[in-house]
Amino acid sequence: MNCYLCGSKIPQAIRQTRRRVQTGDRFVRRNGRISNRKFTFGMRVVCSACARRMDRKRDADQLIRNLGAIGLLVLLALLLSFN
Ligand SMILES: [Zn+2]
Q1: How far apart are the CA of 39 and the centre of ligand 1, in A?
Q2: CA dist., res. 64 & res. 66, Å (int)
Q3: Beta bridge partners of 56
Q4: Judging by beta carbons within 10 Å of its beta carbon (0-12, 13-18, 19+), is residue 50 exposed, middle or buried?
Q5: What's the count of helices (H) and strands (E) in the chain, helices before strands?
Q6: I need a surface site. Which of 10, 11, 18, 46 has the fewest CB within 10 A?
Q7: What is the CA(53)–ligand 1 centre distance, in A?
Q8: Residues 42 and 21: beta-carbon distance below 8 Å
Q9: For 8-63, how does the pLDDT look when each residue is reduced to its tens digit (9 = 90+)?
Q10: Cα-Cα end-to-end distance for the chain
Q11: pLDDT score of 54
Q12: Would you say the pTM of this structure is higher than 0.85?
């Protein structure tokens, strides 16, 4: 079994880790013209290093979203206090 992302061999003894990864993309056509690009996702076996990297990235994205929401609230509070 090989990692779907980096291709490194995953020993059989290790419990296989599956993650939702991008498996491809396709174009949505409307009236013969490309109107949208859709990514397809699927569960694939990845090695522990890639799984960790994906988890870290997901956590980082989550943190950025949270910080963004907090920043928006702070901005709103500042705007209101100045009026
Ligand atoms: Zn990998």
Answers
A1: 20
A2: 5
A3: none
A4: buried
A5: 1, 2
A6: 11
A7: 9
A8: yes
A9: 998 877 777 899 999 888 888 888 888 888 889 999 999 999 999 999 999 999 99
A10: 63
A11: 93
A12: no
- Tell which wins on pLDDT, 31 or 7: 7
Q: How far does residue 9's CA lie from ligand 1's centre (Å)? A: 8
Residues measured by CB to lie within 5 Å of ligand 1, the ion: 3, 5-6, 47, 50
CA distances from 82 to 24, 50, 67, 69, 72 (A): 49, 48, 22, 20, 16
Q: Can you tell me which residue has the tokens 């090695």?
A: 47
Six-digit token pair at 7? Answer: 């291709």
